[in-house]
């Protein structure tokens, strides 16, 4: 079939252009050639002969005489082993100096997994970070956001998890990344040799908005392919708030009625469609998703973190360069932390309870109350806990982290004061 | 093959604009044919204007184009009713998901619709009618054993007036599509009745004699609910709460424990992983009431968050229609919908595409009436044969930002009979179930004496006030009497309201046990106690709480139970003013 070229643009609003054309399918891709160069565009609405197209490179600079050529296919992305070590844009163009890849094109945004085929998650993902491994264990096929205030080292944390996590393939989806952050990720992964098991899809803050929207879908489509090839895939997305803001921008251009602070009414469904791609394929690989969600104004009730919390299986709060022990929760941890080491749950519960008591003591101290013996012990404990267990820059295997926990307990308390069952203290309490 | 073919003139997300020539019906089902080919996408007419209709498609619309044909079916969106529903897992349109998985593998497949009830299975039918009998809609034609139930094959619910039985099939094995009875009315019309019948999901089944007021308690085995905020069989209740407050866990506990015949779980726009837990665990769990697997009384409608949005809207109606069907057999059915907010959001998405004038937070103006008519489908009824059947509906609500002052929560609160509000403060403090004891309410009668419940409530409220005061004036500024009141309210919370979902015994308390334990609790509240100082009071209650938790974990009326009870009585005697 010959692809007809259309020359007359009827309307340009934001990143959306309208042409009159026939035989165009919903979701079809087109090539738009203007003085700005060539860009892909996608059909987002059909109305009689009017075809609404979202231009990936944006509407800026497009003339009413731009050329629109329909490609007869929907959005696809190549998939092969050659993707590893490479960096692409949201629409799949190379961002590094490597060759373009055109083989084995796959659809993006495919159907969801049949719930009847899902299994109960059962494997821990070790990250070497005690606040995660010990206290809020990450589980294969889990979807977890990192709620963070702007300015926190969330990208450093993601990079570190990427380097330390026991997975086969890492997919990094960057949305609205600062260019420096993109370079940081690339160099960090390269230095440690992890780049060769990583595929990066990066949209930087200066790239067109529409490409930002594609990043989660292309990242997850590629992840789905690797997972079906028996690979444990970790997908890192940063920052989902930028993704949501891009949706907001497009919705407003399309004159949709916003539901909450300007965000479109389908924000929940749109986010869920992406997060629900996390899965453990029985008899094959898996997809685990960690996604940064920055909270404007440190407000969890902001629509983006709020909707995210309703979708994900827990959350990590990053605050003051630490993963907050109280707000953070891995809802799947109980599926795995009874099979790691006998003392895992006891250490987890006890240390958190004591840390909560330490916080109370701090409050009392700040109000000028007299400190009891017990309070002094707690103060010592709290300081040790924060410096050893809460440090997110370490790489400590779970077992060593648990041992370190026992060491702290033994340095600060008598066994009975911890309330841990004596069968465990007999076995694990450090001697001498 | 359909006679009525329309033509697509617009595609906007999952909304189609279709031009037609022959009459179409509001809420009629139609199929959009992708590229005029064999891939047909199910859709529903949701608005008609002039010669064009707007249809919501239950699938992704990628690939459709202007000019593609649309086949109108003339039938409303319906479900199949018959034996074989229980233990099944359906999507919102009643597609059987396990069979779909057998055919299509890991992923759902667009445009693939399987028969909800398998056509090749034969069922052992026993007739309950004979030729010449006079029947009306809903009467029993015959019965079929389905698991532990006698499934009734009923006269189609849409028949009007009296009909005479022409013939009935003898006892034997039949498939669901076989005709087992032929009826005739006085005008000479005949009607063939298959074992299964179809019913349009958005219409309530009304083949009963009258509606009754729900009065009998539905035991959930949760102390907070049964004692303080009870739910009646045939009643309605809602569970709003911020994310992570425990809505889903609460529904999972109810789906296990509730004293009803059948539980229908409608997983509506939430996580697929949560359904999997039920799916994989229920077959392994035994129902203490019947000794059979819990799955035998369970039916799951599963339209999770990444599945098509329009089918999510349909899923709650599918669920409630199936519930009404089993109610017609004289059974008590509990429908649990998680989350009704996702269903309301599906309405909002469609309303937005239809460019309707939006109400608050862009929800459609008719949100309230839609929510009201959904909960209205719950109820207790007296059937034509005098038996009773009930549909109890419980829905979770997921308010934006955890703030109950939003349209879905408010609209729901207007129509339900009980409100179990979950609070962030309680769930953060790990006080599960996180049902707020001061804000929640119920219009149904408690399983224990109402006056006693009121008394306990008063202690909770006054204790909380003291707690608030203490934050300002400190312990020093609080009188010992107030302090003890505070400790008593905390004690009720810790040992009665809080319930360990993971402890085999504590997780489910029989009514008898609740009555007994609550009686003890009341006595303790009314005991005047003296303590040397606040520390002594605190440590007494700490100790008693610990003991009572052990008590909660011991089998009712077992030796251990009695032993711990004695310990508690002794401890109490030591601090009480007057000896017993
Ligand atoms: N009764 C309970 N006992 C112990 N833990 C609980 C209980 N209820 C909830 N939790 C804890 O809280 C977590 C979240 O609970 P749940 O999934 O029910 O929240 P939710 O209100 O349904 O949240 P969402 O709106 O995000 O679906 C659980 O994973 C569990 O860790
Ligand atoms: Mg939930």
Summarize the structure.
Chain A is an alpha/beta fold.
Question: What report would you give on this structure?
Answer:
The complex is a heterodimer of chains A (432) and B (580). By secondary structure, chain A is α/β, with parallel strands linked by helices. In chain A, 32% of the residues lie in helices and 25% in strands. Chain A has 11 helices and 21 strands. The longest helix of chain A has 23 residues, at 344-366. The radius of gyration of chain A is 25 Å and the shape is elongated. Chain B has 4 domains: 5-77, Thrombin, subunit H, CATH 2.40.10.170; 88-98 and 209-442, P-loop containing nucleotide triphosphate hydrolases (Rossmann fold, 3-Layer(aba) Sandwich), CATH 3.40.50; 123-195, RNA polymerase II/Efflux pump adaptor protein, barrel-sandwich hybrid domain (OB fold (Dihydrolipoamide Acetyltransferase, E2P)), CATH 2.40.50.100; 450-575, Bovine Mitochondrial F1-atpase, Atp Synthase Beta Chain, Chain D, domain 3 (Bovine Mitochondrial F1-ATPase, ATP Synthase Beta Chain, Chain D, domain3, Orthogonal Bundle). Chain B contains 14 helices and 26 strands. The radius of gyration of chain B is 27 Å and the shape is globular. The model of chain B has no long low-confidence stretch (mean pLDDT 93). Strand 5 (37-47) of chain A pairs antiparallel with strand 1 (4-12) of chain B. Bound molecules: adenosine-5'-triphosphate (ATP) and magnesium ion.
């Amino acid at each position: 079939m010959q692809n007809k070229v259309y020359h007359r643009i009827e309307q340009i609003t934001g990143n959306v252009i309208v042409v009159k054309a026939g035989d165009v399918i919903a979701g079809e891709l087109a090539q738009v050639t203007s003085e700005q160069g060539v860009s892909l565009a996608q059909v987002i609405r059909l109305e009689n002969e009017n075809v609404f197209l979202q231009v990936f490179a944006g509407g800026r600079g497009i003339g009413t005489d731009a050329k629109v050529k329909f490609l007869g296919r929907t959005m696809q992305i190549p998939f092969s082993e050659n993707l590893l070590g490479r960096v692409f844009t949201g629409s799949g163009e190379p961002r590094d100096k490597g060759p373009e890849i055109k083989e084995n094109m796959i659809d993006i945004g495919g159907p969801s997994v049949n719930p009847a085929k899902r299994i109960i998650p059962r494997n821990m993902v070790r990250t070497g970070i005690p606040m995660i491994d010990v206290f809020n264990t990450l589980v294969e096929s889990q979807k977890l956001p990192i709620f963070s205030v702007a300015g926190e080292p969330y990208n450093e944390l993601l990079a570190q998890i990427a380097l330390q996590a026991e997975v086969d393939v890492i997919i990094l989806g960057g949305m609205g990344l600062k260019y420096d952050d993109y370079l940081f990720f690339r160099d960090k992964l390269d230095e440690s040799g992890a780049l060769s098991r990583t595929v990066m899809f990066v949209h930087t803050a200066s790239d067109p908005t529409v490409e930002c929207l594609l990043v989660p879908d292309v990242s997850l489509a590629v992840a789905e392919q690797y997972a079906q090839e028996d690979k444990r895939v970790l997908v890192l997305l940063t920052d989902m708030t930028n993704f949501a803001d891009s949706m907001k921008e497009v919705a407003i251009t399309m004159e949709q009625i916003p539901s909450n602070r300007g965000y479109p009414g389908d924000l929940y469904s749109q986010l869920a469609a992406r997060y629900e791609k996390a899965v453990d394929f029985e008899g094959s690989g898996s997809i685990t998703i960690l996604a940064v969600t920055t909270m404007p104004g440190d407000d969890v009730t902001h629509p983006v973190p709020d909707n995210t919390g309703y979708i994900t299986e827990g959350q990590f709060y990053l605050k003051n360069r630490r993963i907050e022990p109280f707000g953070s929760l891995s809802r799947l941890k109980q599926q795995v932390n009874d099979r790691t080491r006998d003392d895992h749950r006891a250490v987890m519960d006890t240390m958190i309870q004591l840390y909560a008591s330490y916080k109370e003591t701090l409050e009392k101290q700040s109000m000028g109350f007299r400190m009891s013996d017990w309070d002094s012990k707690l103060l010592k404990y709290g300081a040790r806990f924060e410096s050893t267990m809460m440090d997110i820059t370490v790489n400590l295997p779970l077992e060593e982290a648990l041992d370190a926990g026992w060491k702290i307990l033994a340095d600060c308390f008598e066994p009975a004061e911890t309330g841990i069952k004596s069968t465990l203290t007999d076995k694990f309490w450090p001697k001498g | 093959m359909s006679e009525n073919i329309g033509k697509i003139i617009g595609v906007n997300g999952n909304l189609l604009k279709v031009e037609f020539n022959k009459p179409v019906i509001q809420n009629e089902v139609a199929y959009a044919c992708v590229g005029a080919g064999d891939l047909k996408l199910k859709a529903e007419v949701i608005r008609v204007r002039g010669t064009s209709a707007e249809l919501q498609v239950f699938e992704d619309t990628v690939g459709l184009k202007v000019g593609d044909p649309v086949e109108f079916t003339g039938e409303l969106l319906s479900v199949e009713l018959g034996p074989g529903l229980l233990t099944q897992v359906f999507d919102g349109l009643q597609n059987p998901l396990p069979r779909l998985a057998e055919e299509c593998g890991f992923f759902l497949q667009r445009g693939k619709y399987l028969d909800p009830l398998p056509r090749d299975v034969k069922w052992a039918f026993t007739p309950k009618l004979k030729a010449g009998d006079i029947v009306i809609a809903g009467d029993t034609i015959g019965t079929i054993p389905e698991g532990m139930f006698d499934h009734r094959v009923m006269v189609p619910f849409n028949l009007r007036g009296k009909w005479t039985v022409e013939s009935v099939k003898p006892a034997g094995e039949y498939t669901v599509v076989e005709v087992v009875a032929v009826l005739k009315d006085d005008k000479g019309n005949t009607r063939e009745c298959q074992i299964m019948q179809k019913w349009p999901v958005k219409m309530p089944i009304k083949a009963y004699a009258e509606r009754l007021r729900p009065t009998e308690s539905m035991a959930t085995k949760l102390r907070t609910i049964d004692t303080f905020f009870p739910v009646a069989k045939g009643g309605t209740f809602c569970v709003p709460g911020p994310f992570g407050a425990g809505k889903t866990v609460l529904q999972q506990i109810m789906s296990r424990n509730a004293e009803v015949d059948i539980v229908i779980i409608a997983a509506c726009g939430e996580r697929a992983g949560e359904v999997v837990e039920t799916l994989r665990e229920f077959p392994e769990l035994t129902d203490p009431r019947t000794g059979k697997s819990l799955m035998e009384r369970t039916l799951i409608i599963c339209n999770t968050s990444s599945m098509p949005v329009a089918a999510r809207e349909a899923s709650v109606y599918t669920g409630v229609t199936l519930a009404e069907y089993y109610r017609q057999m004289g059974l008590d059915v509990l429908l649990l919908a998680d989350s009704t907010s996702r269903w309301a959001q599906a309405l909002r998405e469609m309303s937005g595409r239809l460019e309707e004038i939006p109400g608050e937070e862009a929800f459609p103006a008719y949100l309230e009436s839609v929510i009201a008519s959904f909960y209205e489908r719950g109820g207790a009824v007296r059937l034509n044969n005098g038996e009773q059947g009930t549909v109890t509906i419980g829905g979770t609500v997921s308010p934006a930002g955890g703030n109950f002052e939003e349209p879905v929560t408010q609209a729901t609160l207007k129509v339900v009979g009980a409100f179990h509000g979950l609070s962030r403060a309680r769930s953060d403090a790990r006080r599960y179930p996180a049902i707020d004891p001061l804000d929640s309410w119920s219009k149904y009668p408690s399983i224990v004496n109402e006056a006693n419940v009121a008394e306990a409530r008063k202690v909770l409220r006054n204790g909380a006030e003291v707690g608030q005061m203490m934050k300002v004036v400190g312990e020093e500024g609080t009188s010992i009497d107030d302090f003890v009141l505070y400790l008593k309210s905390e004690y009720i919370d810790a040992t009665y309201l809080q319930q360990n979902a993971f402890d085999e015994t504590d997780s489910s308390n029989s009514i008898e046990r609740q009555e007994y334990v609550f009686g003890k609790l009341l006595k303790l509240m009314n005991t005047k106690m003296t303590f040397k100082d606040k520390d002594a009071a605190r440590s007494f209650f700490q100790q008693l709480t610990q003991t009572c938790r052990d008590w909660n974990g011991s089998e009712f009326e077992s030796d251990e139970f009695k032993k711990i009870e004695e310990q508690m009585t002794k401890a109490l005697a030591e601090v009480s003013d007057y000896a017993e």
